[in-house]
């Protein structure tokens, strides 16, 4: 797959405080990459640099090869706080159409694309309602539809499910994976939830404490079709969430545990071997 997002040597300083230190990573087209990191490590700073809202102190961000130096037209963002990102005085349909209107898309096409995007997230028939008439989970689905209606090259998601209850969160996670795969979208999603990063991601990028650097990039070798119960019970899921937790909280990594197991096995073997007499 061609590279959709390339971050090279990215550093961001707020005055004398370094928030991001030399970040390098790439996201191929059609991948759902999750970034997980401890609180305050620099996740929002990273997203703002990728979205062109903050200029890097050093390094570059490229979207499909083009240097990002302002907010790219073909980038959409979904934030945690849906109640502040949707306009309460506009209908659901008008909210979804809003960015398209700003880009000069003709009315008939706006209508068609909004209806299509609402269909992708299972909200056919609610276009004439207002956001405040919908549940929190449904409002966040409207935000996702609005982001997808503009057919972005890259969808950035900043803790998108952190403000909904656990049951709704599971539903939204499944919805995101389904829509991302059906639409072939490229997604970079930031979360502080280890389980969510493993459940959703094709890959998990683990950030260090502030100043943020990438401590590991883990490929999530789980089946593409995931299920909230069986996937979370699977041995690979449990192994990966343990690995991410150790990387975040400073315990031994899988490699260190394997080296420790090997050393213990070798010691046991030496112990069990028949001793040769030296006298
Ligand atoms: N505008 C700013 N001026 C100065 N320092 C800032 C500014 N914004 C963030 N910081 C600092 O930069 C570091 C990274 O902040 P950032 O908000 O990017 O982290 P985060 O991982 O998104 O945090 P959280 O987990 O709380 O969402 C923190 O130490 C923060 O205090």
- Poorly predicted regions: none
* C-alpha end-to-end distance: 67 Å
Structural class: alpha/beta
CATH topology of the domain at 3-74 and 152-225: Rossmann fold
What hetero molecules are bound to the protein chains? adenosine-5'-triphosphate
CATH superfamily of the domain at 3-74 and 152-225: P-loop containing nucleotide triphosphate hydrolases
Percent range for β-strand residues: 15-25%
Give the SSE order as H and E letters.
EEEHEEEHHHHEHEHEEHHH
Indicate the CATH class of the domain at 3-74 and 152-225. Answer: Alpha Beta
Biggest sheet, spatial arrangement of strands: 6-7-8-3-9-10
Q: How many individual β-strands?
A: 10
Q: Based on the coordinates given, report the CATH architecture of the domain at 3-74 and 152-225.
A: 3-Layer(aba) Sandwich
- Specify the number of helices: 10
What can be said about the biggest beta sheet?
6 strands, mixed
Radius of gyration: 22 Å
Could you estimate the helical fraction of the residues in percent? 40-55%
Shape annotation: globular
What does the average pLDDT come to? 92
GO molecular function: ATP binding; ATP hydrolysis activity
Protein name: ABC transporter ATP-binding protein
Pfam family, one: ABC_tran
Keywords: ATP-binding, Cell membrane, Membrane, Nucleotide-binding, Translocase, Transport
